Amino acid sequence: MGRRSNPPLTRQRILEAAVALADREGLEAVSVRRLARQLCVDPMSLYNHVDSKEAILDGIVELLMREADLPVEPMEWDAWARFTAHRFAELAARHPRAFAVFSLRPLMAPESIRPVEAFLAALARAGFTTERSSEILVAFFGYVVGFSMLRHARSLFTEAEPSATDMSRLSPEEFPRCHQLATLPQPEEEVVFDASLQALLEGMRAILSADVRTTRVARTREATA
Amino acid sequence: MGRRSNPPLTRQRILEAAVALADREGLEAVSVRRLARQLCVDPMSLYNHVDSKEAILDGIVELLMREADLPVEPMEWDAWARFTAHRFAELAARHPRAFAVFSLRPLMAPESIRPVEAFLAALARAGFTTERSSEILVAFFGYVVGFSMLRHARSLFTEAEPSATDMSRLSPEEFPRCHQLATLPQPEEEVVFDASLQALLEGMRAILSADVRTTRVARTREATA
DNA sequence: TGGTGACACCTACAGCGTAGGTAAAGCAAG
DNA sequence: CTTGCTTTACCTACGCTGTAGGTGTCACCA
Predict the structure, then answer these.
(1) 3-state secondary structure string, B95-123?
(2) Domains with residue ranges and CATH for chain B
(3) Would the Cβ of B218 be found within 7 angstroms of any atom in strand D?
(4) Cα–Cα distance, B59 to B80 (Å, whole number)
(5) B residues 13-32 near A, CB within 8 Å?
(6) Which of A121, B54, B156, B217 is most buried, most CB within 10 Å of its CB?
(7) Which residues 64-103 in chain A show a CB within 8 A of chain B?
């Protein structure tokens, strides 16, 4: 083994350093060489533990998902959704910058995919078709990740690191309301997030009951034919 | 002026090439040097028309927003939201890969911000407080952009360019439902997108009426005190 | 003891964004 | 027509990036 000084390099140590660096300086600061410098190690040494830089980003996703600790045991689909939504919101608050990996890389680790499989199973048990389940998955994660990213990683008006140019660009004369929003503190209570989520699930329940109705009609038609 | 051969280089031509390249090979393929090669021009020549690579990405956002052509004239807040949601969904379908810039860069161009200002004005007219409007903006754009990205740019199971590894990773034994989803074609009708959006707006209307009620109570308390 | 595998290191290469400098083309005034 | 200024295309060069390929050294096992 090469001349060693520090605790031995491991995948885990690399990924933890990556998450820390991402939260400190943003995801674009996460480079193989920066990480190596942080870990007091040669850049190429990382490749003994990870396949590529993309694999490092996938590892960040994996770590965040592990921290989110989503439920995998059977439960009601809407309970799973509410639970998961809050876990993601908390995760985004803890990792405002690293959280953006979810828009960059897919879920790769089996432990990350397992809870999704559980959600799909719950949807099927409730009576959703496969096609509907697919769309509901997209709608649910789209809302949760989209909301959390916009609130914490921010990308509608302001950069990830809100700068002075953000304000100067939003001149109070031309864009009074946008300008005002940029100065607003974050709400302490998640009333809109919760209410919108609640409404979203309500809409999905409506789809379900409509689906069940038409399925039943189709079945009876089959039976009488 | 330098030795010219082609039509003159302009910001517009650069940005159009950037959008085309992004849609063809993904946003990560958009580099100053690649663009210059496409335009048969020296890399540094681009800097006579744009400030930086970030400015190019901002320009992509600008072009897409111009193409979306969101309403800026006064209208009901929920009508604006429905209209905008569909424009964004269509935009994402036309530019599946370039669409991801919305998660990378904020709105910079005044013409991009103007419709948002109009939406905020509509929310205020309807009776939403500034704080509520801010959260509703996040919820709305979070849902619309999140959904569209997940559907078209895809990043939950599969890469932007769905590859064979996506399927092999989702083994049919361990993840039967996720595996099945990866093979599913896109639905021809947007029933879940529409229904969820409808539900979302319904939830916001509920918040509004609750707000109006409490505001009225507070006002009468003030009056009687 | 000799072999084998793991792992840290090193060199090198192609590509990136862009600072700084040069030169040619277009245009305005004299 | 000449003079000079502005614009803009080009070129060189620097420090950064990801990573292919090769080398040396350690731990362990036969």
Answers:
(1) CCCHHHHHHCCCCCCHHHHHHHHHHHHHH
(2) 70-153+187-224 (1.10.357)
(3) no
(4) 24
(5) none
(6) B156
(7) 100, 102-103
